[in-house]
Amino acid sequence: MRLLLAGLLLMTACFLGGCSKYWYQDGRTFDECTKALSSCQAEATRYSDVERTHGLGGYERQFVVECMQKKGYQLVPEKDLPVRVRRESSPVFGIPGIAGTID
Fold it and tell me: pTM (2 decimals)?
């Protein structure tokens, strides 16, 4: 019970403290970031057994991180994003969202 409570408190502190991170590259649009992430996720599924594991696991997540970094994107905390960028959080806790200009 204590472990569950400690985990819940940690998640709440992280959520309230702005632990959210976003894939972002200065000068790239929101749509470009969306396409880059989709491309990396699609490539990750080519190298894994997603149907058997029912989703992206640790290997696939690491693959996506490396792929996005090769494309020039960085994981940026929400508090460090420029004010005038569109942000979209991931629906899954702990998975980075995406951010970019709206132009």
Answer: 0.75
